[in-house]
Each structure stands twice: as C-alpha cells, then as structure tokens.
Design a protein that fits this description.
Elements: E1 2-6, H1 9-12, H2 16-28, E2 33-36, H3 51-59, E3 66-69, E4 72-73, H4 79-92, E5 99-102, H5 107-112, H6 120-136, E6 140-143, E7 148-152, E8 165-168, H7 175-184, E9 187-190, H8 194-210, E10 219-225, H9 234-243, E11 248-252, H10 260-278
Parallel strand pairs: 1-2, 1-11, 2-3, 4-5, 5-8, 8-9, 9-10, 10-11
Antiparallel strand pairs: 6-7
Helix pairs in contact: 2-10, 3-4, 4-6, 6-7, 7-8, 9-10
Length: 279
C-alpha cells in the first residue's frame, strides 16, 4: 500500500509559497501522489484553484511525485480541449499524470458551462472512449452523440503510453457507475464505509469479468483524514484499509482549520507514522 496526500488548497488559498512547500515536502517524504479537487464554479465552493493549471505549475518544481487532478467533472468540460490539457500536464511533468474523473452533482456548474446535467452519465461514457483514443492514437476518427473528430490528433503525445484513468462516484455506486468503472477505469476512488467495501468490490470485479477485463488491474484508493472529528482514528483506519487490500491511501490534512504552517507540520509528523504502520 502506498500513501499520497490531498493538496490543501482550500485552506492555503492564495499562499503559493505554502502550496509549493507542501508539494515539495510531500515529495521529499516519499509520498506517491498529490491530489487536487475540481470545482470551476459553485455557489458555495470556497477557495479552490483550477486543478490542471495548478498541477502544471507544481510540475515545474517537483520531479517524482505523481500529479492527480481528481475528480475532474468530465461531462462539464469539452472533451478534446481537456485531452489536450491532460496531455500537456503529462508532458510538463515528464509522465507523472494520473487522472481522476466523475460526473458530479452540481446542476448549477453544468448550467453555467452550457452542458446538460441530465445526460452527464451517458456523455461521460462517450467521453472516456474519445479521451483514451486521443491520448493513445496519432490520428483519431470518432463520431459520437456529443463529440466528433475526423482524422485529427493531439501533438505532442503524452509521455506515458497510457495515462491512468481512475473513477470516483457516490459512496455507494449504482449499477451504471459500477459498469463504468469495470469498463473504463484503471482505478476506483473508494468513498464507501469499510463495511460496504467488499460487497461493492465484488460487484466491480464481476462487471469487469463480463467486460473481459482482469479485475486485479482495477486498483483502489481510500481517503483518511488526520485532522478533524476523526483524527484519533486515523492510524486504525489505515490498518483496516490495509487489511482489506486497498492499494493507496490519500491522507488529508483538510478539515481542521489549520494554518499553512500547521498543515506542513502535520504532514511532516504523520507521514513517518503512516509508513511505520505498514512497514
């Protein structure tokens, strides 16, 4: 099991020095990845940087840590443009991009971006097909309900032959989401209670087999907060997830109303403890 961390941009706000220090410290401590969430417009979003732009900046002063925008509300975005942005992130980071996608639940954001909230699931299925083609083929021919591409491609190509695409949905994913993960995803962002994990994982595995995919190729990542109401439980939660076979844990210093320096201090304290737990 490997550890990553959520970059606490909501609480660090425009303190770019602190954001940089947090990213650099994460890499120095040996964490596997940085995650940045996605909200473009929202009535109550709080302070949130655009993840693709922010991670392109982070790529310039890091060299090893994986950069994971997650989850991008893909149906709210233009598919070809986003494929170009993701490719650029992979190039600028020398092959360190991992993508998390979902469909979101914010109707206002869809309306503001001129997209249909009601068809977001079906559109996401189509987008994932086109996105994979654009990321892996020099010339693409694609004719769908929402997007069409004729004998065109993205240049430069990504550094990675296959940028990992992960999916995040509801805490208890429905059949359509399970099938989307089984058909398209390299990984699943686990939001459910540990008590529900095995039954959901079994459904995903069965759906993957129907798609003629190896279920073991669909990895998993759960989040663990190290501050806030459950801060006293974080070590036991890590141990529990490890026993269940989770591949990654995303540590979160968000939610405790910490100052930027307190975020850095907390990260420096808990990462060695986390690594000791699984050693």
């Amino acid at each position: 099991m490997r550890f990553g961390v959520s970059l606490p941009v909501r609480e660090m706000k425009n303190d770019l020095g602190a954001i940089r220090a947090f990213a650099e410290l994460s890499e120095d401590l040996g964490l596997s990845h940085l995650r940045v969430p996605d909200t473009i417009i929202n009535k109550n979003a709080g302070h949130l940087h655009e993840p693709m732009t922010l991670l392109a900046w982070v790529a310039a002063f890091t060299s090893r840590i994986e950069l994971c925008p997650s989850v991008i509300v893909l149906p709210a975005r233009q598919t070809v443009l986003f494929a170009k942005q993701l490719t650029e992130l992979d190039v600028l980071s020398n092959g360190r991009a991992r993508l998390g996608v979902g469909i979101g639940s914010n109707k206002d954001q869809y309306a503001a971006l001129g997209q249909d909230f009601r068809t977001r699931g079906a559109r996401c299925d189509e987008q994932l097909l086109l996105l994979k083609s654009l990321l892996t083929q020099e010339k693409v021919n694609f004719s769908g309900t929402w997007d069409s591409v004729e004998e065109s491609g993205i240049s430069p190509s990504p550094i990675q032959p296959h940028i990992p695409i992960w999916y995040g949905g509801a805490s208890i994913p429905g059949e359509k989401v399970i099938n989307r993960i089984a058909r398209h995803a390299d990984g699943w962002f686990v939001l459910c209670d540990p008590n529900d994990y095995n039954s959901i994982r079994k459904k995903i595995d069965n759906a993957a087999l129907k798609e003629k995919r190896d279920p073991n190729r669909i990895q998993t990542e759960a989040g663990v907060a190290v501050v806030g109401p459950r801060k006293s439980e974080w070590q036991s939660r890590v141990i529990n997830w490890e026993t269940m076979g989770i591949d990654y844990i995303c540590l979160r210093t968000l939610g405790g109303d910490l100052t930027p320096q307190q975020h850095l201090d907390k990260l420096a304290k808990i990462v060695p403890e986390a690594l000791q737990i699984i050693s």
